[in-house]
UniProtKB/TrEMBL annotation:
GO terms for molecular function: enoyl-CoA hydratase activity. It holds the Pfam family ECH_1. It comes from the Bacteria. Its EC number is 4.2.1.17. Belongs to the enoyl-CoA hydratase/isomerase family. The lineage of its organism: Bacteria, Bacillati, Actinomycetota, Actinomycetes, Micrococcales. Gene3D superfamilies: 2-enoyl-CoA Hydratase, Chain A, domain 1 (3.90.226.10), Lyase 2-enoyl-coa Hydratase, Chain A, domain 2 (1.10.12.10). It comes from Arthrobacter livingstonensis. The keyword Lipid metabolism applies. Could possibly oxidize fatty acids using specific components. This is Probable enoyl-CoA hydratase echA8. InterPro entries: ClpP/crotonase-like_dom_sf (IPR029045), Enoyl-CoA_hyd/isom_CS (IPR018376), Enoyl-CoA_hydra/iso (IPR001753), Enoyl-CoA_hydra_C (IPR014748).
Length: 258
């Protein structure tokens, strides 16, 4: 496994675990850190031995945003030329299911990184917010789009315009997170959930992720059409044959591609 300096990456069973590891800066997402996260996620993505990815931070902070100190003096032209933040678009293209296990601050880019994951499991101390407006900017890692799609215009608009932080209970009620768990058991819970996903056929899980994500990008008619194509493609896999045979024979499925 590659050595990283700003994250930890390890494999536990069939789950790839990425831990943001910049405690002095509350896991502020520097450009270098983004590249490490992407490299680790891509390595897990192409590894047939990894069926799901968990991304997490510390109990104090998932990530307190993009690195303000790094970008404070940057010019618009410089950012445009460097295609600043495009690393996060690449992360969103990772096809392996990814869970964000979020405790503490998930602010600005931290909230946006959590939303790039396929779903969020939140600790009871999690705090979500898009406070960029207080810095004289707006969300830049997809927050204005993904937050609005996740929780609707009214709440997203309020959060983006005021910088208000949302606690875990409200985030669950608003549909931003899948589930809230005690902070002590966050990682255990997220890893167990990831292990369930990793026990499925990986190509089929990737296909399921593609289908759900299409709901964000297309009309209902287009989305349903894609879903139909994708389920037909599932029937081309040995794992569909095995899954349905196992049901009929009243036994656990032994998927080949897991
Ligand atoms: N960037 C850099 N350093 C940070 C960040 C950050 N986002 N957040 C915290 N830190 C650092 C602090 O500077 C401090 O370092 P030091 O000890 O050297 O002074 C250390 O982490 C600990 O932080 P605090 O002492 O502030 O800890 P507190 O517990 O008092 O407060 C908070 C925690 C409330 C999370 C506070 O740190 C805070 O408000 N952080 C900033 C939150 C924020 O505004 N995030 C949004 C950032 S902007 C963004 O994410 C997207 C921008 C889009 C730009 C588009 C460009 C293309």
């Amino acid at each position: 496994m590659t050595a990283y300096s700003l994250i930890l990456a390890e494999q536990r069973g069939r789950v790839g675990l990425i831990t943001l590891n910049r405690p002095d800066a509350l896991n502020a997402l520097s450009d270098a850190m983004g590249r490490e996260i992407l490299a680790a996620a891509r390595a897990f993505d192409v590894d047939p031995g990894v069926g799901a990815i968990v991304i997490t931070g510390s109990t104090r902070a998932f990530a307190a945003g993009a690195d303000i100190k790094e970008m404070a003096q940057k010019s618009s032209v410089e950012m445009y030329q460097l295609d600043w933040f495009s690393v996060w678009d690449s992360l969103a293209k990772v096809r392996t299911p990814m869970i964000a296990a979020v405790a503490g601050h998930a602010l600005g880019g931290g909230c946006e990184l959590a939303m790039i994951a396929d779903f969020i499991i939140a600790a009871d101390n999690a705090k979500f917010g898009q406070p960029e407006i207080k810095l004289g900017v707006i969300p830049g890692m997809g927050g204005s789009q993904r937050l609005t799609r996740a929780i609707g215009k009214a709440k997203a608009m309020e959060m983006v315009l005021t910088g208000r932080v949302m606690g875990a209970a409200e985030a669950e009620q608003a549909g931003l997170v899948a589930r809230v768990v005690p902070v002590e058991s966050l990682l255990e819970d997220a890893m167990a959930t990831a292990a369930v996903i990793a026990g499925m056929s990986k190509p089929v899980a990737m296909t399921a992720k593609e289908a759900v994500n299409a709901a964000y990008e297309s009309t209902l008619t287009e989305g349903v059409r894609l879903e139909r194509r994708l389920i037909f493609s599932c029937f081309a896999t040995e794992d569909q044959k095995e899954g349905m045979a196992a049901f009929t024979e009243k036994r656990a499925a032994e998927f080949k591609h897991r």
